[in-house]
Structure formats: C-alpha cells, structure tokens
Amino acid sequence: MSEGAVKKEEKPRKFQAIRGTRDLLPPETALWNRVEQTAHEVFGTFGFGEIRIPIFEPTELFARSIGEETDVVSKEMYTFVDRLEKLPDPPTLGDYGAFIEQAEKLMATEELPSVPGNRLAIERMKRIWDRGNVFGTEGESPIEKIDSAVLEELYKMVVLKDSMELGQSISLRPEATASVCRAYIEHNMQQLPQPVKLYYMGPMFRRERPQKGRYRQFYQIGAEVLGGSDAPAIDAEVIEMVMTFFDRLELQGVQLDINSIGCRECRPKYVELLRAELLKVKDKLGPDSQRRIETNPLRVLDSKLESEQGIIATLPRIADHLCEDCAAHYAAVKRQLEMRGVIYRENWRLVRGLDYYMRTTFEITAQGLGSQNAVCGGGRYDGLVELLGGPPTKGIGFAIGEDRLVLSLTHHKPVPQRRAIDVVLAWLSPAAYTKAVDIARNLRREGIYVELPAKLMRAGDAVRYADRIGAFFTLMIGEDELKSGELTLKHMLRQEQIKITETSLVDHIKKRRELKEAQ
Ligand code: HAM
C-alpha cells in the first residue's frame, strides 16, 4: 500500500465543542454585542465602572466565599493543580530520581507545599528509589522489557506522585462576586470614595448538567456595590438599575421576586426552627430534601418537587422571624422600590444557593426560558470582604445570565439580520488590483462595508457573487475604467449600471443605502 493510501484511510478526528460549551455565531453575536453595549450605557448612567477580573483564581477564594457545602463548590467547579514548572514531570521511568531531588529542594524553599502528605510521599519514593536504580535511565526502559516486580515499584511511584499537592489548586471562576471582593481588598479600594460601584461581563464555568439555558461555560453581566453603608437605598438602586437595563432591552414577562434572609443574629434561630419543623414531616419529603434537613434546611424551600409543595406551604416563614434591624431594613427596601416605581413580588421561599448572602435577596425571571427561567440573581453580602481578609465592608450585587437573557430576547423577536455588504469591489484585470485595494481602503474609512474578492473576477461572476451575498452594489474596475478614470457601478436591486468618478462614490453609496434602510 502506498503512503498516500494509508493516509486516506486514517481520517482525521473531527472535533466538536465540549458538552455544555458552544460557539456563538453571527448574526446572533450582533445581539450579544447590543446587549453588552446597553449594559455599558445603562450601568454608566448609574455611576458604575467596569472591572475585568481573571478567569481563574485560587480554589480557596471560591470555597471560602461561596461555601464548601454549596453545589457550586462541592460539585461544579473546574479545578486543577497549577503544577510548578520547575518540577520535572517524570515522563519516563528513569526520571524519578530527578523528580525526588527537585521536589526536596522546592519544599525546602516552600515553593512546593511542604505539607505532611508531600513529605511522606517523598520519603516513600526515596525508599523505593534507593533500593537501586531499577528503572534504568531515560530512553532505556521500554515497558515490555520490565518484569513485574519493577512494574509494581513503578506503580507505587506513580501513585505516590499523584497523591502529592504539586502546586496551587486553581479553579475556573464559577461566578465573579468573590473575585471582585478579592480585587477590592488587593487594590485598597476602601481608600477610594465609597461606595465603589463596579460591573463586569464575561464567561463563568460550572460543571452542571447541560440543558436549555444551562451551560458549563455561560456568560454573566453583573454588578457589585462595596463600601461602608448598607443603606436600603443602595439595595433599591441596584435593583432599579437591572430593571432599567431589562426595560431598555424590551425584555418581556419580567418578574422580580425579593426576600430578606436575615443576618447572622436571626437566621440561625430561624434555620433551627425550620429544621425542627422539617424533622416532623421528614417521611413525607423526597431524598434530596431529607438530606438537606441536615446540610442546609433553607434549600428545602427551593424544592420544585410537586409532592413537597403542600408541606412547604405550611412551614414557618423567615419574614416572621427577622430581628428588628433586619425587619426594618427589609421594610425600607420595599418602600424604596415603591418610590422608584419598581414592581416586585415578595417570595419568602427565595433563599439562593450561595452561602455569602444575608438580608436582601432577589431573583428575576423572564419569558420563554422553560425551567431555567432565572435571568438574574443577586443579594446583599455584608461581611464577605472581611471573610476574605479585608476591612469591614458592606456589599450588594447581582449577576444576569447573558445566555438566558439573549434566549428570552430572541423568543419574542427574531435575531436582527447582520448588516449587508454595501459593495462588492471586483477587479477585472491584474493591473486594476492596486487601485481596487486603494478604493476599498477609502470606502471602509467612510464606514462603508466592502467585500474585496481575493481573486480576479469576470464581471458576470462578480455580479452573481454580489447577488448571492445580498450586496447593494457591484463596483467594477478593469482596463477601461483605469483608462477613463470612471468606475462602473451596478445597483443590484434596480439592475441599473452607471459610470461614476471616485470622488462622488462615497456620497452615492451612502445615499442609496439610507434610502434602502428607510424603506
Ligand atoms: P447565581 O444565581 O448563581 O448568582 O447566577 C446568576 C445568574 O447566572 C443566574 O440567574 C442565571 O441566569 C445565570 N446562570 C447561572 N448558572 C448558569 C448556567 N450554568 N448556565 C447559564 N446561566 C447560568 C451568582 O452568580 C452571584 N455571583 C450573583 C451575585 C452578584 N450576587 C451578588 N452579587
């Protein structure tokens, strides 16, 4: 068989986007841009500035903020060890000697975590290694030549190495509030005029079960207000801002739910009461809720299970168990919302799935999203900055699921078509090419959309091509045009062709385009 024939048989693998991730393509990306542009504009008018934060952070930052026991941290994060570059990865059997030596050096300088597990692993590896250099040197240890005793030793080495913490544990960000608080502390933003108002947009990562409106890489547009005050006016203004944004986008079927989940004083007492009540009806609950009675009774209120709805309706409500301060704060937030004309619904079952919340929580749903209909979630998180080693700070914010927002917007309005190309600029002879490049540059500078074919075309082909891509005009330059200094311009819809000078080209094209757009 010839080499060519072998190659033909081995079809290269076709790659697909990883489950839960997707490509966003034109023309839909134009709508994403419009959404993001509107966010920049609306948030700007409320005095917010944009922050851009890293895609990955120490795992510990998320674990401490969002909570070890939450679904996000315990099950859904993409976590990896950022292995030290200085540490050789033993690709061949003979490399373990170098690995042990280097690991010891790095632990001495604390570059490699000098934790008991790592020290023990190195000690054991050394013992195996010291029994004699059974593995040979690099390149001399093809696996089939090794006897089973050596394989066993090698296996132990691999297991020991894999048990080590070879560097810092890092996670792709599942959300951005923790990072914004980290940045607030890192850049001493408490010294700036307070409150500090920041917004962000970008991809987040959660290893959830993908379905409509739920992805493993999804996009959020969020905002946070950090500072010394927890005035209810701040809560109300943040909510007013997101409602204004949705209004500007003409999002349909918007429903705002609010709640207060109390503070460190009153919530634990309520949680105990709830737990006691739930224990009384434990047998009637499903396995998930039964488990949550122990781990996080508040999450039982989140349950969508039909059979549990009747029971949940009879449970004690947090609004009746708020301390005086929390009750007053909640009442003031509601008054403030009314003053701003923001329509809300109180939902005592709104508890949210992240640990850092206290007092005000809210969620917004919209039309056309099926079961994943929360398009925005947020709330107050006083004390989170302190928990991350910063000064006492109050905080409130929200994040919008941009994928869901776009999905809902396209549900009732088709995606706007991409703006068409104005001109296909065909060069009909090699000599005309330089002129064509020149004209294309001038037209584009004027904001005209130009398609300049990379190859020489015959007039007929150029017109057919312009027709196929829906261009308004075909502009043609060949030998005749170069000689006369007049270009040939064909109006595609009217099927009429004129001669035109370069100087009047821009005005002519713009005028025709405006006429078309006005139709
Ligand atoms: P969250 O409720 O976890 O809150 O997420 C906010 C929004 O992000 C959700 O309402 C939803 O629209 C969207 N979202 C979440 N997970 C996915 C997913 N897998 N696929 C598509 N969209 C999703 C937070 O993230 C908080 N950091 C919000 C916040 C900011 N609270 C205070 N400040």
Written overview of the protein:
The protein has 519 residues and is an alpha+beta fold. The longest helix is centred in the N-terminal third of the chain and has 18 residues. The termini are far apart. The model has no long low-confidence stretch (mean pLDDT 91). Bound molecules: histidyl-adenosine monophosphate.
Key descriptive features of the protein:
globular, binds histidyl-adenosine monophosphate, 16 strands, 519 residues, single chain, 8-stranded mixed sheet, 19 helices, 5-stranded mixed sheet, alpha+beta
Number of helices: 19
Report the biggest beta sheet as strand number plus sense, adding barrel if it closes. 8 strands, mixed
Helical content class: 40-55%
Strand order in the sheet with the most strands: 1-5-6-11-10-9-7-8
